Amino acid sequence: MSTLAERQDITVLLSDWQAGDAGALTELSQLVYKKLHQLAGSYMFKERSGHTLQPTALVNEAFISLMTSNVSFQDQLHFYRLAATMMRRILVDHARARLTAKRGDGSQQVTLTEQAQVTADPVNIIALHNAMLALADFDPDKAQILELQFFAGLTTSQIAQLYGVSGKTIERGSKLAKAWLYQSL
């Protein structure tokens, strides 16, 4: 069992939880839940009022999916990658379900900033998702950087720390990836 100071590290908590320490899951959820909820709130703020998917539901669904998956989390970076992917999939699945009920027509421009600017239009979410998949085929590392920025809400310095590289390296990769996405969208 780890010391309390060590347990603030998500990697240690994941390892302890996977080794059977139920208390580690509680600590892990307290450590990451608030951040995930803030991200979900920012995503859902851009949605129409009366939206059926609320921030708490998005976070709960993503967190439960992460914790019930048969994934052996390797480290903090692996956890954040999966969390970002899970939130993106939930948003895309929700958008696809809305499109099934109401077909969208034509492509629309998607604006990207440090946080994903996803509007209420499900076509935007799906277009961004498809562009991210294409980027991942072209350059998986750059796609992961953007996913960590947009869907996990990590800063450039946090991503650099997770990868063990300089912030400038992450910034360059992010700029190239964004340029690729702009061209693709």
Q: If you had to describe this structure to a student in words, what would you say it looks like?
A:
Helices cover 69% and strands 0% of the residues. The chain has 185 residues and is mainly alpha-helical. The chain is globular, with a radius of gyration of 17 Å. It is built from 8 helices and no strands. It has one domain. α3 (55-68) crosses α4 (76-101), α5 packs antiparallel against α6 and α6 (140-150) packs across α8.
Q: What is the helix/strand order?
A: HHHHHHHH
Poorly predicted regions: 1-7, 114-120
Task: Give average pLDDT, whole number.
Answer: 77
Cα gyration radius (Å): 17 Å
Q: Mind summarizing the main beta sheet?
A: none
Q: Report the strand count.
A: 0
Estimated helix fraction: 55-70%
Q: Termini separation (Å)?
A: 48 Å
| Strand content range | under 5%
What's the shape?
globular
Number of self-contained structural domains: 1
Q: Provide the structure class.
A: mainly alpha
DSSP helical segment count? 8
